[in-house]
Design brief:
The complex is a heterodimer of chains A (156) and B (103). Chain A is mainly beta. Chain A contains two helices and ten strands, in the order ββββββαββββα. Chain B has a three-stranded antiparallel sheet, with no helix packed on it. In chain B, a hairpin with a 4-residue loop joins β2 and β3. Classes of the chains: A mainly beta (156), B alpha+beta (103).
Amino acid sequence: MKKKTERLTTPRFGEVVYTKGDLYRFPKGLVGLPSLQRFVMLTLDESGIFRCLQSVDDPAHAFVVVDPILARADYRVPIDAAAAEEIGLVDLADAVVLAIAVVPEDVTRMTVNLRGPLLINSRTKTGYQLVHSDTEYGVREPLVEALASEEHEIHA
Amino acid sequence: MLVLTRKTNEKIMIGDDIEILVVNVGEEKVQLGITAPRSIPVHRREVYDEIQRENLLASGSAVPSLDALCGLKIARPPGAPQPTGSMRAPERRAGKGRRRGAA
């Protein structure tokens, strides 16, 4: 049976076609944006490093997300029971953690928020934004700095 | 705003299941113990504000062009999660069952 497709017109990506099964649900929305509860995950580059959570509830909202360990190789985030319960997370193997990026015009100055990561149950596609208070990680960790210096080493 | 005066070791109840205990009162700091159901998140206000601000900034920022992203040459670290959707330029389609295991 062919799945019914939905269409969404977005300012950044034009028309996005998705099925209900593609939707990521954040029952509590995001911090400060409680009405943004349904998203489609779009892959921005071929390697899939950069993805985008495009809001279905308000197409004007889209969030570039990356694996937080790109910014900090040692990144760890405690998953409290309440958060796990919120997204029906039983098996830690189903947990995916993503960091939201702020992308300025100069993309090399992109930063990621490691203090408010998204915890997603990949099995149910349900997510929750954690508020990670007691941490050394900041809300604006540079993403490209470390990578640029790595590149120097390669070319040296 | 309701303002209550409490001493060390005194409590405040909010509803039936939220309890705030004054643990210690220092010269410039107050230590509070908060007992609340797990479903009620408790945060320091400034951390919450900070994350909210970043969320708004992030949602308002432009999505970088494919060229700009490719120019970054970021190596995928081992163990990074697989992409969970798809958007193939130019047709801009999301989630066409490219995920492994998506029957």
